[in-house]
Amino acid sequence: AADKINLMPQDFFAELCEQIIQHLNHKIPGVNTAELCQRMQTSGIEINAGDLEKIANVISFLFSTAARNSLSTEELVTTLGNAVSTLPKHAVQVIRHVWNERSKSISVSEDARSMATVGQFVDIKWKLGVAVSSDSCRSLKYPYVTVMLKVADPSGQITDKSFEMTIPQFQNFFRQFKEMAAVLETV
């Protein structure tokens, strides 16, 4: 990941580090590497989403491990220097600055660790569609519902999931949500 960090300008790397810290503090559900990658590519930086996800995972692991071990800024930088000699100077400066400013705010409670093993729901969008025709059938008139979910996986990466349902499937889905809402009202 160190060679990929070389591709990132300091401002984008700092933004990535800041999002990771916010995620570790449970302020945001995850790091939107796809959006950051798109902005970087628009700026003329050649990096792909997979590489950016790897960088985010490494930095997230670095910060969470440092928090778990209560490392000071100097201990973190020294450990980085011993472990990774190929890390670019600008990246070490950003890590030093972010950790110095924000390390005290990271909480690593047991509840947070156990909760982090499951993905977190971020957003839902849906749309109603009608399949009018296809090559094999002239007149379908088949209504369906497309559901698009944004989910932050345990590492903090935000991914989009989508699926389609027939109207009876959607009605069952809706009924189950109403049941969940009713149960939550009693809690």
UniProtKB/TrEMBL annotation:
<dbReference type="InterPro" id="IPR047155">
    <property type="entry name" value="COMMD4/6/7/8"/>
</dbReference>
<dbReference type="InterPro" id="IPR017920">
    <property type="entry name" value="COMM"/>
</dbReference>
<comment type="similarity">
    <text>Belongs to the COMM domain-containing protein 6 family.</text>
</comment>
<feature type="domain" description="COMM">
    <location>
        <begin position="120"/>
        <end position="187"/>
    </location>
</feature>
<comment type="function">
    <text>Scaffold protein in the commander complex that is essential for endosomal recycling of transmembrane cargos; the commander complex is composed of the CCC subcomplex and the retriever subcomplex. May modulate activity of cullin-RING E3 ubiquitin ligase (CRL) complexes. Down-regulates activation of NF-kappa-B. Inhibits TNF-induced NFKB1 activation.</text>
</comment>
<dbReference type="GO" id="GO:0051059">
    <property type="term" value="F:NF-kappaB binding"/>
</dbReference>
<dbReference type="Pfam" id="PF07258">
    <property type="entry name" value="COMM_domain"/>
</dbReference>
<protein>
    <recommendedName>
        <fullName>COMM domain-containing protein 6</fullName>
    </recommendedName>
</protein>
